[in-house]
Specification:
The structure holds three protein chains of three kinds. Chain A is an alpha+beta fold. Chain A contains 20 helices and 26 strands. The N and C termini of chain B lie far apart (53 Å). Chains A and C meet through α1 and α18 of A and α2, α3, α4 and α5 of C.
């Protein structure tokens, strides 16, 4: 797609804060989420899961369970299609173990029964014979040449040699002469930093309601970030054509990337087909932690050289990511993001993917970036401290800007990093005094942002209102922002527009709600759809006036003669044209389909003040400010919400959240009690400063804002804690025992 | 599973004693229901004691208070006189779980769940609270510290259940405090904890003390050496150092997902010292 | 399992149901009475999404047996608005954009209402600690706290 340079400046609706259309349903309990639907004759499904981290499945005996009254269907991996490659195969095998259980919680069999109690009783009657195999859950252990092989056959040609078969791929990015760069440095710091696997922590567990007949025609209701992708996955796994399955996305109770793929949906469909009844399947919280898609854990070697006056001369990183028992692309993304904030002459980052006996990772808000940038930003901050340089000045001195050849290849167009750094520098937060045991940390953050395949349909109703049909689940107010963009373009009030998220049969294909793509790509398609409708309305006005179509223009919701030569006519409102449309050629609608390009990267800078209790290692976050480039904030409340929400997820990641595996390879904290996400009393206000450096790739300048905000908190807090205690922390989360140990170590 | 809600203690003990399978007492249910959902517990009988007279009452007795076994944390928190007399106990009870859990959770349940990390137990042990137990053979009283015998295990016999917990009277210049360490500010299980109850004389010298520690051994510890460090002192720095050292020495913690041995040893001492200062200040305010 | 016959009041209406002795109040509300506003986020009392009040006391309905509510008065999110009139908290949550995905919202509203009935003039810190048992993963809580404080102010003035 050609870049659209008619970036509009003068807005009436964009930038205001109207109420969201789905709001009343959500404050009254009426909104229907994944587990809120039922159907007549519905069965309840439950999964039997492996209690072992790695085990050969010798046999599964379901006879006793089948004989239990009220049990209607039992399935195992043998009931799924037999495709031999591709992501759908991986998704299938992650859901249900074939010959080996690959992680604690791996599905082994599933039951549909007349109620939950019967389904659970049936699970207890299924006899599985396991042969326990050696397991490996940690990166370094999994890389050793003699490590147990988790899942053979995934090694790519680019995988580094000399390791076990668990080391499956490597992606390298960079440019310049590293040796020459390091030779110019006055100070070089090398460190290895580690981050734990975390979970998206959405409050709504995965849930679906499936109905499929013996003819293979099906209906699926589920909470997902992408009904079209769920359809693709399920169709492939079940061996049916996509047209046979209609998927409707429920309201979604949080996703953050974790609902971009399937965990239960194919199971419910196969059970439904086998049982001949609708099947409802809902994960409990323990299952969500054990058998959905947490993020990767990482070990990252960083080496950065700097001159005395703060110029970075070279940067190098090796990022080792484990994302469970199946390959993923997070290493590819992370290696690209690591040094993205800097304008460097010599840079190299290599991202390596390692398999372990853990669940298959799924996307989590800027997948791969938070840990990569944490490692880089921690070392940059240490260099600043060692060289006694202001950390903001050093970032400004090295910041990527328009024309910078990025560390991952492309040359940046208009970007907002310098503007966010400058905004942070003049903000009162940066100069505020600090007390004892307190310190300030900061970090840059980056995310590419996606565009992708998008379809939008916009209908002009006969009464002059507008209906928009789009296909991306609304995870944070996008129906409001899409309605706003349509209203802006059409020149009508916001409340004349209603946007709905449609099922897979009601609109053309849409990629998943991910990559912060919706406000950008769906917004762009909405504006183009509105323009198509405007073109048609101008045509109708021309017809009503009896003038040439080209002699009509659209302005502020009215068709007007283009100039005096066009003739003297009273402008026609959208409503007037709509009311006459049956007589001027029929209904008026616009639609737009695009594989949107030009998403426009987003940078952010976070400032945080912490206080560390020197006797307990407890970190209190005192003050937090987020600066981020939104390109153009369509609905500022929801932009701020993304900035605040991402920051708090990052605070959790930095301080407390982690997947804890025991020596037995079992997950020890599969619940919200010991997987500790931030609670309201842990936090200060999260202040926000929105910068607007328009994205040339969007008619209104929009950049995605959803993901960048989770990137900076890890390093910002690590840098603050390190400065508060006088010891550089190099591992997340900075749980109190780790911080206290570091304090005691420093005291000798 | 059967559910019973008897209206008398006698009926409750009979149900519990006669049950051939696994019987459990239901008061607040905030541990029990979680164990039933995620812990594999499948009781044959639940005996809900909330309909028995007196179970939900806080009653003055001999200058102290008798707290019914089904009194919730929220109800305890609203009882001003109990809070004035035993503030450390009330603050410990109020730390159990969220506001929602407070609406249900009870001290007696916290005690009988027999977790070494239970928040209210160290405070009750420091307070020298006495549990009243009903059983097939009638009533008996038992110091709180003798109820839990190991994680998840109690000294209660089949058919027995706690009906109330008694908190004795105390001199004016006496008070208590409880502190726990958690990684967040709410919603966590204690990594380690300390309860301190003390009495001062008119000069501010500590004449009596009880120091208890949670989550650092299989059951809550009552540490006499720690109490001795305070008794006879005005809680000066050296007394507090001795208190901390005695607490660290008494610890026998484990490494687990919530904390390390080293961390628990160190922070238990910190908490005991801080709790002692708070108790001292409260005692001073009362005298 | 023999079912129990329970009589109770929900949002001011008498309600009668049969339940298994081990059924939670949450499961009966959602699966039998079609009151799906309360959500099951964890089933262990750690997330607050299932918050309701029983006899005026805020509880997690996943940690209450349905058998226990015989004769009790229960309120849920479905009883918060009166006809077309939203409760001030509901209104302020919309105005302050205090929800993103909205799945925690019913529980938070029920909990916040219980707070303001007990303490009409809470400090921000008191609001944060009262709501610590209501997990929200989208908002970072900031706008939720603003909405509760603003609703409290409006209700005091009203």
């Amino acid at each position: 797609m050609a870049l659209d340079h008619d970036t509009k400046r003068d807005f009436k609706i964009i930038g205001t804060r109207p109420l969201r259309p789905d709001g009343i349903d959500k404050v009254t309990g009426r909104a229907q989420y994944g587990a809120d639907q039922s159907a007549a004759g519905m069965l309840v499904a439950k999964m039997l899961r492996s209690p072992h981290a790695h085990a050969k499945i010798l046999s599964i005996d379901t006879k006793a369970a089948e004989a239990l009254s009220g049990v209607k269907a039992i399935i195992t991996a043998a009931d799924f299609g037999d495709m031999r490659k591709g992501e759908a195969m991986n998704v299938r095998d992650h859901i249900m173990a074939r010959d080996r259980a690959l992680y604690d919680g791996h599905g082994v069999a599933a039951v549909a029964a007349i109620n939950e109690a019967t389904a659970k009783a049936a699970l207890a009657l299924i006899k599985v014979e396991y042969e326990i195999l050696p397991h490996v859950t940690e990166i370094a252990d999994a890389m050793r040449p003699d490590a147990p092989v988790v899942n053979a056959g995934f090694v790519q040609e680019n995988a580094p040699k000399g390791y076990s078969e668990n080391v499956v791929s490597a992606h390298e990015f960079g440019h310049g002469d590293l040796a020459a760069g390091f030779a110019k440095a006055d100070k070089i710091i090398s460190r290895t930093l580690k981050t734990a696997a975390t979970h998206q922590g959405y409050i709504e567990p995965h849930a679906c309601l499936a109905s499929m007949g013996p003819d293979g025609r099906g209906e699926l209701w589920c909470c997902t970030q992408g009904q079209f992708y769920i359809r693709t996955l399920c169709a492939e796994i079940l061996g049916i054509e996509e047209s046979q399955l209609r998927v409707t996305a429920s309201e979604i109770g949080g996703g953050f990337g974790g609902k971009t793929t399937a965990f239960i949906e194919p199971v419910a469909l196969v059970l439904s087909r086998k049982a001949g009844h609708p099947v409802k399947m809902v994960m409990d919280r323990e299952e969500v932690f054990k058998a959905s898609g947490p993020t990767v854990s990482s070990e990252i070697d960083v080496k950065i050289g700097m001159t005395k006056d703060g110029r970075i001369t070279a940067g190098q990183a090796e990022l080792r990511y484990q994302g469970g028992a199946f390959p993923n692309m997070t290493n590819w993304l992370g290696a690209q993001c690591a040094f993205a904030a800097y304008d460097l002459e010599a840079v190299n980052a290599i991202g390596i993917n390692i398999l372990t006996n853990r669940p298959k990772q799924a996307a989590y808000r800027a997948p791969g970036a938070p840990m990569a940038i944490y490692a880089i930003e921690a070392v940059v901050d240490e260099l600043c401290e060692e060289l006694d340089l202001d950390p903001l000045d050093v970032r400004l001195k090295n910041a990527a800007r328009k024309g910078t050849k990025s560390s991952y290849g492309p040359t940046f167009d208009e970007i907002g990093l310098v503007a966010t750094l400058e905004a942070a520098k003049i903000h009162p937060h940066y100069a505020a005094p600090l007390g004892p045991n307190q310190a300030r940390g900061l970090s840059c953050g980056f995310w590419f942002n996606f565009g992708g395949n998008t379809s939008v349909s916009l209908g002009i109703n006969f009464d002059g209102t507008v209906g928009i049909t789009e296909g991306n689940p609304d995870i944070g107010g996008s129906r409001a922002s899409i309605s706003m963009m349509a209203a802006e373009e059409l020149g009508i009030p916001y409340d004349k527009v209603r946007t709905i998220v449609a099922d897979t049969n009601s609109i053309g294909h849409n990629d998943v709600t991910d990559g912060s793509r919706v406000t950008f790509a769906v917004g762009l398609a909405t504006i183009k759809a509105a323009r198509a409708a405007i073109k048609e309305m101008c045509k109708r006005a021309a017809k009503m006036w009896g003038i040439d179509e080209d002699a009509v223009i659209w302005e502020d919701g009215y068709a007007k003669p283009a100039g005096q030569n066009a003739g003297e006519f009273e402008p026609l409102s959208l409503a007037k044209i709509a009311r006459k449309s049956a007589n001027t050629g029929g209904p008026i609608a616009g639609h737009h389909e695009v594989n949107a390009d030009g998403a426009g990267v987003s940078f952010g800078v976070h400032l945080v003040d912490v206080e560390v209790d020197p006797e307990t290692g407890f970190t209190k976050v005192l003050r937090y400010t987020v600066f981020q480039d939104a390109g153009k904030a369509i609905h500022p409340d929801y932009v701020e919400g993304q900035m605040q929400g991402g920051a708090v997820q990052g605070i959790g990641w930095a301080l407390n959240e982690e997947y804890i595996y025991g020596a037995d390879g079992k997950l020890q904290n599969a619940g919200f009690l010991d997987y500790r996400i931030p609670v309201a009393s842990d936090l200060p206000k999260i202040d926000t400063v929105i910068l607007e450096i328009p994205n040339p790739g969007h008619p209104y300048g929009v950049r995605g804002v959803g993901e960048t905000s989770i990137v900076p908190p890890l390093a910002a807090i690590s840098n603050a804690v390190s400065r508060a205690i006088g010891v550089r922390m190099d591992q997340l989360p900075m749980s109190p025992p780790r911080v206290l140990k570091a304090i005691k170590g420093a005291k000798g | 599973m059967q559910y019973a809600a008897p209206e008398t203690t006698a009926e409750a003990t009979r149900l519990l004693a006669d049950s051939p399978g696994t019987a459990r007492v239901l008061a607040g249910g905030t541990d029990l229901l979680v164990q039933m959902k995620f812990g594999g517990l499948a009781p044959d009988l639940l005996v809900d004691i909330k309909n028995i007279k007196g179970m939900r009452d806080v009653t003055p007795e001999d200058g102290g208070f008798r707290v019914g076994a089904a009194v919730s944390g929220a109800e305890m928190g609203e009882h001003k006189a109990m809070r004035a007399l035993w503030p450390g106990v009330v603050e410990a009870v109020e730390l159990i779980g969220s506001t929602q859990v407070q609406g249900r959770a009870t001290m007696a349940g916290n005690l009988c769940n027999a977790s070494p990390a239970a928040d209210s137990v160290p405070a009750m042990v420091a307070a020298n609270a006495i549990a009243r137990i009903a059983g097939p053979d009638g009533e008996r009283d038992c110091p709180v510290q003798d109820i839990p015998t190991a994680p998840g295990k109690t000294s209660l016999q089949k058919g027995e259940f706690i009906t109330s917990i008694f908190f004795p009277a105390r001199p004016d210049n006496a008070s208590d405090a409880y502190l726990r360490f958690i990684p967040r500010t709410e919603m966590d299980i204690a990594v380690c904890s300390a309860g301190v109850s003390l009495t001062l004389d008119t000069n501010g010298t500590c004449t009596d003390a009880r120091v208890s520690l949670g989550a650092v051994a299989a059951t809550v510890l009552l540490v006499q050496d720690a109490a001795n460090a305070l008794i006879g002192s005005k809680l000066d720095d050296s007394a507090l150092e001795a208190l901390g050292a005695a607490c660290s020495a008494a610890c026998n913690p484990i490494d687990d997902k919530r904390g390390t041995i080293e961390f628990r040893r160190d922070v238990t001492a910190v908490l005991a010292k801080r709790a002692a200062k708070i108790a001292q200040s409260r005692a001073g305010e009362r005298s | 399992m023999k079912k129990l016959h329970i009589n109770t009041s929900i949002n001011g209406n008498s309600a009668e149901f049969l339940c298994d002795p081990d059924a939670t109040l949450l499961s009966v509300l959602r699966d039998q009475l079609n009151l799906t506003g309360a959500k099951e986020g964890c089933g262990s009392g750690d997330c607050g999404a299932c918050s309701v009040t029983v006899n005026g006391r805020l509880v997690a309905s996943c940690l209450v047996l349905a058998a226990e509510v015989e004769g009790a008065e229960i309120t849920t999110i479905e009883g918060m608005a009166e006809g077309e009139v939203l409760h001030p908290l509901q209104k302020k949550f919309l105005e302050h954009a205090a929800l993103q995905c909205g799945v925690c919202t019913p529980g938070i509203l029920v909990a916040a209402k219980a707070l303001l009935e007990k303490n009409p003039d809470p400090s921000e810190t008191e609001v944060r600690f009262w709501l610590a048992g209501n997990l929200c993963r989208c908002t970072g809580y900031d706008k939720i706290i603003n909405a509760v404080m603003d609703a409290a102010a409006e209700m005091r003035g009203a």
